Amino acid sequence: MSSEVLHHPYIDPIIVSVGPLDLRWYGLMYLVGFLFAWWWGNRQCRMSHYAAQGWTEQRFSDLLFWAFMGVIIGGRVGYVIFYQWAYFVDNPLYLFDITSGGMSFHGGLLGVITVLWIFAKRNGHSLLAVGDFVAPLVPVGLGAGRIGNFINGELWGRVSDVPWAMVFRGAGDLPRHPSQLYQAALEGLLLFVVLALFSRKPRPTGAIGGLFLVGYGLARFVVEYAREPDEHLGYLAFGWSMGQWLSAPMVLAGIGLMIYAYRASAGTNASASKSKGANR
Fold it and tell me: What is the pLDDT of residues 46-102, one digit of tens each?
């Protein structure tokens, strides 16, 4: 192991305080993700294939507000259920103790899917079409959130001797993977680039959302090998962490959704071709 060990730089989690209100880095990262989603979503509304589906900036603004609420509520509920269930059973009010922190991506995803389903029914869209529109808007917010985790010095990685490993306060004296940055790079930047490029052209309904599920699930599953599992949960069956057990079904669901999307598209195209042939 190198004699020169990196140490996580201490950064005050509170940027500024105004009376009883604190502006925290993690909250700022949520704001960054929200603003980017607003900007990119409006940009997508001007793309011809999305405009043809009836997407307007007003309709998107309505969706964005409710999707953000789905992230917050679903993320909190998911964290309590997936990671703090035993504590919650003994302390039900813990669910509302948002000052203690704790958000789950997988819970947030379920919250967003619920909101998208309601929005789709009310606006005459299919759930898969709405999911396709929203998927490219998500990764930057995920990446920003992981940077917030890094700034706070939380959710650190496993002990490692790689040259860029660093000592985190509260995690002992051994250097660890800065797994938060790995997640920011894979779940944030890389996944956004892949989805942005893939969604530039019309795709079968459900394909973009399916690719998001596959991309995030794979990225999260791989990085979990470098991330320290939650202390009170440890390693579960097959030596997997809770994050891996929650991500593996996402990959399978995403693959299934993409297969369904392309088969349905091929069937529709084949039917259209037969119809044209019959009408010659």
Answer: 999 999 988 999 999 989 888 888 888 888 888 888 778 787 788 887 787 766 667
46 carries a ligand binding annotation: no
User: Distance between CA atoms of 278 and 85, rounded to whole angstroms?
Assistant: 60
For residues 107, 109, 111, 113, the Cα torsion angle rounded to the nearest 10 degrees is -150
d(CA 169, CA 103): 21
Tell me the one-letter amino acid at 53: Q
By CB atoms closer than 10 A (0-12, 13-18, 19+), residue 53 is: middle
Question: What are the pLDDT digits (tens) for 214-231?
Answer: 999 999 999 999 999 987
